Amino acid sequence: MYIYLVAFSVSSMMFYLSTTSKRKSQKNFLAAIGILVLAVLAGLRDASVGTDVNVYGRALYTGALNSSSFVSYYSSHVTSLLSEPGYYLLTYFLSLFFKDYHWGLFVYQLLPLIFVYLGMKRCEKLFNTPVWLGMLLYDLMLYNYSLNIIRQCIAVGFVFYGVTFLFEKRYKPYTILILLAVAFHTMGIIGLAILPMYLILQQGKSISQMKQIERGVIFIILLFAILISGSQIVAFLVSRGVLREFYLEYLSGGRYSGSTTGVPRIIVFGHIIYTLVLVSYKRFTDRRGGESLFLIMSSIIVGIASFAVGYIQYIDRLSFFFVPLQAVGLANIYNCNRPKKIYAFLIVGFALVLWYYSFVMKGSGETIPYKFFFA
User: Comparing 303-307, 340-344, 358-362, which segment has the lowest mean pLDDT?
Assistant: First the structure.
């Protein structure tokens, strides 16, 4: 357990020092250390650290090593139009140079960390987001999950970075990054749904409070309409060969359609608190042009998904694409407090409690205890 906390602390400290440094070369060096600390930790882990590592991290890498060409390797895994070609191409490319799958585990973690960091840097430029705090919250919220759901968290990095371009109405880089996300994991397609969400919730400089409330209500209604019709949409896409047949297992009657744990009340409570914090400081973040309404709704989505886990297994994984946005919103509040250190202490402490409950007590993703592969 402690190795994660040490890595999170060292990484966050590097990002903090990078921000305060005046020399560009030193800034980049310290930021690189902050990223590498966490990527190396992921690369040195045993295959038992992370539920799906033996499948997506080890078996697929071994398959690439034993394949005569990328075409034969990829064709053996194609079951639908969206069959994650980016992930298989990356794995095959790495296998040409490295025979040990731990290099794959290192790179699979390096990619999302780089793009989440780049996204945080863009938010720093746009909203004065403290990168060190945003990255630390991301680590506590999603890092351990990323050791399990490898492909999806690579897509999360691309989607988050892409969404930061929406804040400047730059749709071309956003589109390219979303397509890259889909190439690594099918659920990256959620990034496309974020565009209409943003268009509805964007605030600009002249949107009245009442108008924001109206937009929020419209979005919530549309969100529930999509959730209600979600099963039909998935079934249709599977029937057309767009999605893998495996996704039917999440629908009614499927293997993962029910819950084995019930509603995780503490986690749901945690996301309610996060959302209330964002709402409480909304008028302050509005002054800084922080797209607070969009970030609040992102937090609400995470909360709804965490509640829905009590009825559909793994539905919370859909919300992981919104977790970095939730982290940005919470980090932005740091600049709205005079006792900044107290706020940082409280919000990080609260996130740490939820981390401990999820990964230590409940064993989510089976990432604790941590084991080195050479131990």
Answer: 303-307
